[in-house]
Amino acid sequence: MDNQDFQPNETTLAAMREAESGVELEELDVDNFDEYVKSL
User: Fold this and answer.
1) C-alpha 10: how far from chain center
2) Domain locations in the chain?
3) Which domain of life does this protein belong to (predicted)?
């Protein structure tokens, strides 16, 4: 692989900032997760 610097676009940067802030995080309901995965 080439030795390139990764330069994220503005959308990616905004998503990274949001994830790091924790402000918009929702609680994941895992009660029926197995059934959900099986339905995919």
Assistant:
1) 15
2) 10-39
3) Bacteria
Paired tokens of 17: 């900032």
Q: Which two tokens stand for residue 9?
A: 């676009």
pLDDT (0 to 100) of residue 8 = 93
Per-residue HEC secondary structure of 1-40 comes to CCCCCCCCCHHHHHHHHHHHHCCCCCCCCCCCHHHHHHHC
Neighbours of 1 (CB within 10 A): 3
| Amino acid at position 38, single letter | K
pLDDT tens, position by position, 1-38: 566 788 999 999 998 998 888 776 677 778 888 888 89
